[in-house]
Amino acid sequence: MRKYVIIPAGGSGNRMNNALPKQFMLLKGKPVLYYAIKSFLEALHDAHIILVLPEEHVAAGQEIIDAFFGYERIKIVIGGRTRFHSVQIGLEEVEDEDSVIFVHDAVRPFASHALIERCFKEVCQTGSAVPVIECRDSVRLLTAEGNEAIDRKMVKLVQTPQAFHGKILLPAYRIDYKDKFTDEATVAEAFGIRVNLVEGDEKNIKITRPADILIAESFFTT
Ligand code: C5P
Predict the structure, then answer these.
(1) Ligand 1 pocket, 186 CB below 6 A?
(2) Which of 102, 146, 175, 177 could pair with 161 as two cysteines, CB 3.0-4.6 Å apart?
(3) Alpha helix (H) residue ranges in the chain
(4) 161 preceded by cis ω (within 30°)?
């Protein structure tokens, strides 16, 4: 079965108070995006990588590929208005429905081989794999009346890579966009699929705020 990895890196990143999107910020001297690509090239020797970039940063993405990887297994496409649209555009490059498709945020530099392997095994068995970790904070739900506590043991925090069989993800993404589509799991569910959860990884953080770069830097020394 063919393997594809879509890396949505199409965001222009306004939460970091920085003109440079977070996937291009440097982490130990290399762009955050470099680590996302490297994890998959190393973990999946036969996977095709589809890198989705903002139009204005295609040249920056090409520089990363030229400097570190080469184009044999990586293709660049230009992203869309939201993450959903960027993934939808990336999926147009998938040539074979009979495939495993991973989607991994460019801003998560620490997807371990073990995590990628767990997702792959789960997809082969059940068709979907969505990594989650425990919620360690107390959790409250906003309601019409105010707010109420929820049992945090009943809450999971969702990560990427999210992996699906092509026969699920390709038709699922033909749906019209809704604001709640923040990941592949929400799209697959809207298509009527129950997604399967796998154990995520505490280190697989998403670089979202300036402090996350400092946290990520600290992982290189621990
Ligand atoms: O927006 P969010 O923080 O959820 O972004 C998750 C990933 O989706 C990031 O890697 C970002 O670059 C990507 N993205 C995209 N196209 C957009 C918006 C976000 O590929 N239009």
Answers:
(1) no
(2) 102
(3) 32-43, 58-68, 83-91, 113-126, 166-172, 184-190, 210-219
(4) yes
Residue-wise pLDDT for 171-194, tens only, equals 999 999 999 999 999 999 999 999
- Is 0.85 topped by the overall pTM? yes
Residue type, 42: E
For 92-121, give one letter per residue: b (16+ CB within 10 A) or e: eebeeeebbbbbbbbbbbbbeeebbebbbe
Q: Give residue-wise pLDDT tens across range 37-75.
A: 999 999 999 999 999 999 999 999 999 999 999 999 999
Residue 31 Cα to ligand 1 middle (Å): 16
Q: Could you tell me which residues come within 8 angstroms of residue 56 by beta carbon, excluding any fewer than 6 positions away?
A: 12
Which of ligand 1's atoms lies nearest the C-alpha of 36?
Answer: 10
Q: Whose CA is nearest to atom 6 of ligand 1?
A: 105
Provide the 3-class DSSP secondary structure of residue 22.
helix
In short, whether 107's Cβ falls inside 6 Å of ligand 1 is: yes
13: left (phi over 0), alpha (psi -120 to 50) or beta: left
Of 186, 15, 217, nearest to 84 by C-alpha is 186
Tokens for 214? 């400092």
